[in-house]
Amino acid sequence: MPIAASMFTDSGDANRALTSSLARPADAGPTPRGAAIALFRRHLARIQQGVRDEFEQHRVDGERAAQMLAGLTDGLIAALHDFTMNDALQDEIAAARLELPDAATGMELAIAATGGYGRGTLAPFSDIDLLFLTDEEPSPVILAAVEFMLYFLWDLGLKVGHATRSVSQCIAEAADDTTIRTTLLDARRIAGDDALFSMFQARYIVACVEAGAGGFIADKQRERTIRHQRYGESPFLVEPNIKEGRGALRDLQTLYWLCRDTFGTRNFAELARPSGPYQRTPGLLTEQEAKRAQRSWDFLWTVRFHLHYIAGRAEERLTFDMQPVVGARMGYTRHGRQVGVERFMRHYFLTAREVMRLTHILEPQVLREALGAPAVVPQVDAALRKAGFVLADGQIMPAPGVSFDEQPIMMLRLLAYARDRKLAIHPLAMHLLIRWERRAASLRGNAEANRILLELICGERPNRKLASEMDRAAREEEIRRGEPARSAARWLHVLNETGLLGRLIPPWSRIVGQMQFDTYHVFTVDEHTIEAVRILGTLEAGLLAEETPVANDLVEDLQSRRALYVATLMHDIAKGRGGDHSELGSELALELCPALGLSAEETETVSWLVLHHLLLSQTAFHRDIDDPKTILDLADTIQSPERLRLLLVLTIIDMRAVSPKVWNNWKATLLRELYARVAEVLAGGLATTERDVRVARAKEAVSGLLEEDGFAGTEIADFLQLGYGGYWLSFDPDMHARHARMIRESTLRDSALTVDTQPLPARAVTEVTIYTSDHSGLFSRIAGALAVAGASIVDARIHTMTNGMALDTFWVQDSAEDTFDAPHRLARLTILVEQALSGRINLADEIAKASGGMMGRRMRAIHVPPRVVIDNRASNAHTVIEVNGRDRPGLLHDVTAAISQQGMQIASAHITTYGVRAVDVFYVKDVFGLKITNERKLDELRLALVTVLTRAEEAAIGAPPPGPSRKRSGAAA
């Protein structure tokens, strides 16, 4: 029998339609189980598809769809109950030879929806939570009925969470288990004995009142803390869990449960009603706050429904491949330079922040109602009382009669007192800060407000010398939690969560919740910025001495501390505006810094740091720091030793704040070497242009080492004649000595190929040196062999010696960006290099095998447009080629092969990845050892490289979804 369209608004109609389809003539006997399952399955498919159609055609939002699905599921279960009790169970009774009780069987059993389903909402692929409520001593018939219904539902393909309990068991287990108490809060009868269910409800309410709300609230808060630890303390992770993450649905549900248990309310709107049946809840929320809570609830449910339907399962994580699809389905399109997916994700993160703010507003009032008013101690601190604050339960809050609405400056004064006296902010005070944050806009230009804000941004300079080892351990624990009493990051989190920071610094509000759709950045822009400030505080406290020894020493003696903290706060403040965020941010800094109270000199320093905050990292990872022009150009831009020190510290904290995986010893080494060379020039030391002097000193240094090793004078002389000037400036004396030993051994053995591997754990790399006959395409073949071996190249130096041999050095890492040092893998690497150079393996086939399953759907969802930049100004001796494209196994092999095919020689390569985007830089010459200046030749080179990159991008996007994503080998960060 067809089901009418009205079934999607009336579950009763759907129930009657299904019951009618099960009806049979009296003399036909019970409907066979198989036939009944077929009817129910068709009915289930119709109601599920009907709800999906209503939702996807935008006739209902997520919450309304969840209510419809729950209501229609009610009808299906009620029909199953009727079928079981009135029809199917007769065969079960006969087969089991059970005796019917005197009373009708339907009077001894009630079926109730519990948990989220009990609230009348159900996601497409969520569990259906059922309580089979029985008499104190359920009859065998009732137990048989429960068993029949459960197996029937499982046969329909439904996931059922179930419990069979008597009323007394429900009460007892709810008292012992908060989870059970929570699921029963919204228990709702679907079918069966109404009187039995009413008795349960009455007894349950009494039991909850007698137990009190205090223990329940504490348990739910503990559950939330554990959940946040598991799914992420930050609500601004770029791939959030929309159900369990911080600021997600479960946090809203926790608030609902607390209010439901304490006040008996069933939605947020009831918390804003000044009158009516819930007299205990007037004024807990304003009408506007209640509306924002409902909007957050609707938005999260809509996102969840889209996720379930797209994934075809109960998917709760908003991964990169899901984000553009969900965003498009919800109508988010490009706006200016901002793509639709970034607009959608910003809406999500702002919603998560709204949930956190709602928690700060509502939860303190629930606690106050459940546990009583806080114990205010007004006379303990007369100065505090005079300032307008009191201590409640040891936490600071405004004194009675103090209004943030009338005196908005009191909001900042409260934060200042809390910081200076190491006091926690009372939850009721947080509530008031959030409720009146819009009044902070009136404080712009207020001298006192700007002074306090600047003090909160900069924190307090730690005194390392006075700290004992015990103090250090305590500070480490505090900083690990990110909440030392005077940490700038702690107060920035408070300012950001309450909204005060965006009111006081308007450009900040534009980066709140702003994400970048890539796999490199783990946090939103605002969260990344606060994390950078936290790391700066950690560095100042001396807790990163081992990881960043140079920066650890520098930060203690900086003369421009305030400028550094403000520059850290503003370095990404112009992201999302279009254009170069460094240039735009530099201009904003010129406007904002004077308002904060910075001097003209400090303002200029902040603006300069924001403009150049990427300079050191781009130079260290994308340029040849052994090229004299690289160092001279950098020194000309920086000019001041103090600026160099500030820039190094800002670079390090910026990188470490992106993601824990971004920073490693190799990058630390490159930055340290770059800093030392630029500092030498700025200090008036040896000029980088004195090339001959540096070459002579390098030869002199290695000669002494070789004499100590027993080299004969003729052997030393022969070695010194092998290298051109660039070779002697590319390595330190110890490396030169290793090369000399390697070349001598190769010559004695008359070996065509020598491969030497040297793990360097301090740098998190393994050095691979290859000595063989030079020929066109050598770099490409070696890169391909390393890719097949699973080694990721992070840097390379290519040198042709005067005897026609190539001495190529590669620094590689494993897939975890650590030293590639497993003996069996090093042995395999050497064999693969030999096979590749002798032509005994097909590199293209082997790379294809190694690439299998390395590009999952999450990575393919991110578009990486191919880009090739050719620069003839960055080096006096080389043409610099920068290649941007999708990271994949063998990319370096293909790119270098294209360069070789154009008749060019590679002198050095610098390999960096940013998530799925590879940025590889090559210093090249033509066959005569000169820069390439012919425009036609450069155009041909650019076209060849773009073709290689485009093929990789098209293959990645068009590839079928394989297994989990993995990093490429051959060119990794």
TrEMBL record:
Establish whether keyword Glycoprotein is in the entry. Answer: no
Please state every residue range assigned to the domain named ACT: 767-844, 880-964
Q: Give the catalysed reaction(s), semicolon-separated.
A: [protein-PII]-uridylyl-L-tyrosine + H2O = [protein-PII]-L-tyrosine + UMP + H(+); [protein-PII]-L-tyrosine + UTP = [protein-PII]-uridylyl-L-tyrosine + diphosphate
Region (Uridylyltransferase) residue ranges read: 1-383
Q: What is its EC number?
A: 2.7.7.59, 3.1.4.-
- Where does the record place the HD domain? 525-641
Q: Which UniProt keywords apply?
A: Hydrolase, Magnesium, Multifunctional enzyme, Nucleotidyltransferase, Repeat, Transferase
**GO MF terms held by the record:** [protein-PII] uridylyltransferase activity; phosphoric diester hydrolase activity
- PROSITE patterns noted in UniProt: ACT, HD
Q: Which SUPFAM superfamilies match?
A: ACT-like, HD-domain/PDEase-like, Nucleotidyltransferase, Nucleotidyltransferase substrate binding subunit/domain
NCBIfam families found in the cross-reference section: PRK05092.1
Member of which family?
Belongs to the GlnD family.
| Family annotation (PANTHER family) | BIFUNCTIONAL URIDYLYLTRANSFERASE/URIDYLYL-REMOVING ENZYME, BIFUNCTIONAL URIDYLYLTRANSFERASE_URIDYLYL-REMOVING ENZYME
Q: What the record says about its domains?
A: Has four distinct domains: an N-terminal nucleotidyltransferase (NT) domain responsible for UTase activity, a central HD domain that encodes UR activity, and two C-terminal ACT domains that seem to have a role in glutamine sensing.
Write out the function statement from the record: Modifies, by uridylylation and deuridylylation, the PII regulatory proteins (GlnB and homologs), in response to the nitrogen status of the cell that GlnD senses through the glutamine level. Under low glutamine levels, catalyzes the conversion of the PII proteins and UTP to PII-UMP and PPi, while under higher glutamine levels, GlnD hydrolyzes PII-UMP to PII and UMP (deuridylylation). Thus, controls uridylylation state and activity of the PII proteins, and plays an important role in the regulation of nitrogen metabolism.
What name does UniProt use for this protein? Bifunctional uridylyltransferase/uridylyl-removing enzyme
Q: Which organism is it from?
A: Lichenicola cladoniae
| Lineage of producing organism | Bacteria, Pseudomonadati, Pseudomonadota, Alphaproteobacteria, Acetobacterales
